[in-house]
Amino acid sequence: IAERTLAEKLDVGRRALRKALEELEAEGLIWRRQGQGTFVGTPPTPRLRKLEGLATKTSPFEIMEVRQEIEPSMARFAALRASQGDIDAMRSMVEKAASATTQLEYEKWDAAFHQRLAESVKNTLFEAVNAVRREAAWARLRESSHSDTLIHELSTQHRDIINAIEQRDPKRAEDAMRRHLAEVEHALKQN
User: Fold this and answer.
1) Rounded to an integer, what distance in angstroms lies between the CA atom of residue 136 and that of residue 66?
2) Do the beta carbons of residue 31 and residue 41 sit within 8 Å?
3) Whole-angstrom Cα distance, residue 113 to residue 126?
4) pLDDT digit string, tens, across residues 76-98
5) What is the pLDDT of residues 47-56, one digit of tens each?
6) Helical segments of 27-83, H only
7) pLDDT at 125 (0 to 100)
């Protein structure tokens, strides 16, 4: 949506809208690129942008195989390294995903959660996994496999991951992520 259109829809001035977007960007919740739009999360580094094309050379199942090895460790490290600001932002994203009214909206907040989780670990290699995960074709497959019942279950699993991270329980965070990814893989195989 163009800035002008969004301002009209929200019935606010463009200056107020720009200020709100600047604040969200400063908090690391969105990023903007001239001519491309506004995105949830933080911008990928130039090195990570190069990896995004990798998804066209692999399958979602190969990606899941790697995610199942890496993301449980990422959750474990997040329980040790994430700031309270990271945890609060992730919790907000999880709740927005849980209350999504469309699969596309769920996917947006789910991706933002996993991206923020990777960023909270403060290790660029973990972020590389999410660079591949963001590819459109991969997102379309996830969207088509996510029923309302599954979204509810995945949201509960996201809450389990966040709770373990906030309680600084690395083992529980790792186990919760492992269960979550197994459920995602199962759903993809059913599709």
Assistant:
1) 18
2) yes
3) 14
4) 999 999 999 999 999 999 999 99
5) 555 555 555 6
6) 46-51, 60-81
7) 73
- The helix (H) or strand (E) run that includes residue 37 is strand 37-40
Residue count of the chain:
191
3-state helix, strand, coil in the chain (%, to 5): 75, 5, 20
- Per residue in 156-186, is it b (16+ CB within 10 Å) or e — as a string? ebbebbbebbbeebbebbbbbbbebbeebbe
- In sequence order, the β-bridge partners of residue 30 are 40
Tens digit of each residue's pLDDT (9 = 90 or more) over 64-76: 888 898 999 999 9
Question: In sequence order, what are the residues at sequence separation of 6 or more whose Cβ sits closer than 8 angstroms to the Cβ of residue 88?
Answer: none
Nearest one of 69, 58, 52 to 134, comparing CA atoms? 52
- Model pTM? 0.69
Single-letter amino acid code for the residue at 69: E
Query: What share of the chain in percent tops pLDDT 90?
Result: 32
Which residue is associated with the tokens 């050379």? 57
